[in-house]
Amino acid sequence: MQKTLTRAGLAALALAGVALILTVPGLAEEAAKPAAAPPTPPPPNFNKGDAAWMMTATVLVLMMTIPGLALFYAGLVRPKNALSVLTHVFYTVCVVVVIWVLYGYSLAFTGGTSVIGGFDKIFLKGVTGESPAATFSVGVPLSEIIYICFQMTFAAITPALIVGAFAERIKFSAVALFVPLWVTFIYFPIAHMVWYWAGPDAITEAAKALAGATAATKAELQAKLDAVNADSGLIFQWGAIDFAGGTVVHINAGIAGLVGAIMIGRRTGYGKELMPPHSLVMTLIGASLLWVGWFGFNAGSALEASGASAGIAMINSFVATAAAALSWMFAEWLIKGKASLLGALSGCIAGLVAVTPAAGFAGPMGALVLGLIAGVVCLVFCTTIKNMLGYDDALDVFGVHCIGGIIGAILTGILVNPALGGSGIMDYAAGKIAEYELGTQLLAQTKAVLLTLVWSGVGSFILYKVVDILVGLRVSVEQEREGLDLTEHGERAYTM
Amino acid sequence: MKIVMAIIKPFKLDEVRDALTAIGVHGMTVTEVKGYGRQKGHTEIYRGAEYAVSFLPKVKIEVAVASDQVDKTVEAITGAAKTGQIGDGKIFILPLETAVRIRTGESDVAAL
Known about the structure:
The complex is a heterodimer of chains A (496) and B (112).
Chain A: H1 2-32, H2 48-76, H3 79-109, E1 132-133, E2 142-143, H4 144-162, H5 172-195, H6 200-211, H7 218-230, H8 234-237, H9 246-264, H10 280-300, H11 307-336, H12 341-355, H13 364-389, H14 397-415, E3 426-427, E4 432-433, H15 438-470, H16 477-482, H17 484-489
Antiparallel strand pairs in A: 1-2, 3-4
Helix pairs in contact in A: 2-3, 2-4, 2-10, 3-4, 3-5, 4-5, 4-9, 5-9, 5-15, 6-7, 9-14, 9-15, 10-11, 10-12, 11-12, 11-13, 12-13, 12-14, 13-14, 14-15
Chain B: E1 2-8, H1 13-22, E2 29-35, E3 42-46, E4 49-53, E5 56-65, H2 70-81, E6 89-95
Antiparallel strand pairs in B: 1-5, 1-6, 2-5, 3-4
Helix pairs in contact in B: 1-2
C-alpha cells in the first residue's frame, strides 16, 4: 500500500513538474512584452564548417558513452552483472541529458559566483538557434545550441565513468538517485570553476577600450576589464588550463569512484573467487569506440574546425594513446611475462585520459612522452598499489581516470611551454601568447587538481551517505550472488 | 546393460565418436564439463588480479551398451582418446536397469 502511494505521489509530482517546465519559458516572454522591443541583432556569422564539426564531435562523444563505455565496462564484469552495468551507463546518459537542459547548463555556464553559475538560462530560457556562444577565437561565435549539446555529452559521460568503481554490488536505485545529485553538486560546480569565462570577445573589447582610455575614463574602464576577467570560474581565474576535461571529467569521476568503492566495500568473494572479465571482445569493441569517439571529446574541445587547435588535439589523441597502450603492454610483458590485451586497452584509455587536459596545449612529442608515462604509472596504480591497499575499484576508475587525469593535468602545465612544442597560453587582453612561467603554471595546475580532489572526494562522500540513508547503497549478499541483472532488473544479459 | 561414461579431452571427441561408430555403437550423449584430476590448471592475470583456474574444460560422453559390449567400448574409447599426457581422462562403468526407445516403445537391448 505504501509503495503504491509513494509511486502515485511521485507520478503526480512528475506531472506537476512537466506542467511547470512547459509554462516557465512562456511566462518569461509574457513578462518581457510590455517593455520596448530591443533592436533586432544582425544574424550571427556562424561558420558552417565549425558548426558541422562541433555537431559531429558532439555525437562522437555520445558514442563514447553509449555504446563505447557501456561495452567496455560490460565486458569486464561477470555475465550475471553485464546488463546492470549497461543499464547504469544508459540511464546516466538519459537522466543527465534531461537535467542539463533543465538547469545544468545554466548552473555550469552562466555567470553567478566563481564557484557556480546562476539560473539565467534555466530551462534554456532565452536560448535560440541564433544565440552565439564564445569560442577561443575572437569574432568566431559558435551556435549556443550546439555548444549546449556538446557540453551536455561531457556532463553525461562523467558520472557514467563512476559506476565502474562499484560495479557488481550497487543497487540500481542508488545509482538512479546518486547520478542526479552528483552532477548537480559536484559536476556543475567543477565544470563552472574550470571552464566558465566571459569569452575572448568580451575580454578583447574591454582591453581595447582600456587601451584607448583617457585619464578620466581609465579607472572606470579598468574596472570594466576586471569585471570581465572576474566573470569566470575560480580555477579558470587561477590560470589553470584544462583543454578537454582532465580535471572536470577524469579526476572528478576518478576520486568519486574511489570514495564510492571504499564506502560500498569489496565485492563478496573478492580476492578468493574467480571474477575475470567475461568478454574481452566486448571490452575491445568498447575501448575502440572510446578511442574513436575521443577525437570528438578532445578535438571538439577546440570549439572550431581549425588545424591550429583541433588538429593539434587530434594528433595528440593518436600519439599519447598509442604510446600509453604500448608502454602499459610492454611494462606488463616485462613484469608479468605476458603481454595482455586488457593491458593494451587499459593503457590506451589511460593515455586518452592523460592527454585530455593537454590535447590542444601540448605538442605531439610532448603527447608521446605523456602517453609513455601515463601507461606505466596507471599500470602500477591498477595493480601494485590497488592490491597493496586492498580496495575493490572493480573497473579501475581511480587507477585510470583519477591518476591518469592527475598526470595529465600536471604535465599539461609543463608541456604547454612553447619551448617544448606547446601552444602557450593566449592572453586575450594583451592580444598575444602569454609569457610562460613553469613555476606559476605548475602551481595553478596543482591547485586545480587539489580543489577537484577535495570537492569531489568530500562532496561525493556526503552524497553517498545521503543515498545510503535514503535507499541503501548495496544489495544483499544473496542478491549479489545471484547477479544484479536478475535481482535489480529482472532480466538476463544472456539467455544461454 | 551398462552406461559407459567417459571424460575426455575436448579435441578428442571426433576421434572417439568415429571409433565407437566403427564398433557398432550408434548413439551417445555428449556434455561439456569442467574438471581436474592430476592435470594442473593455469593462471590468468587481469590487470594485476591473478586467478588460479584449476578446473579444465573436458567433454563427457555417455553411451548405453549391452553388458557384453562393455570391454570393446572401453577399448575403443581408450584407443581413440589417449594422448599419453596427463589429463587424458577416465572411464566409469555404471549399471543400467532399463532403456526405452521413445518412438517405438522398444525396451532393453532392442532400445540401444
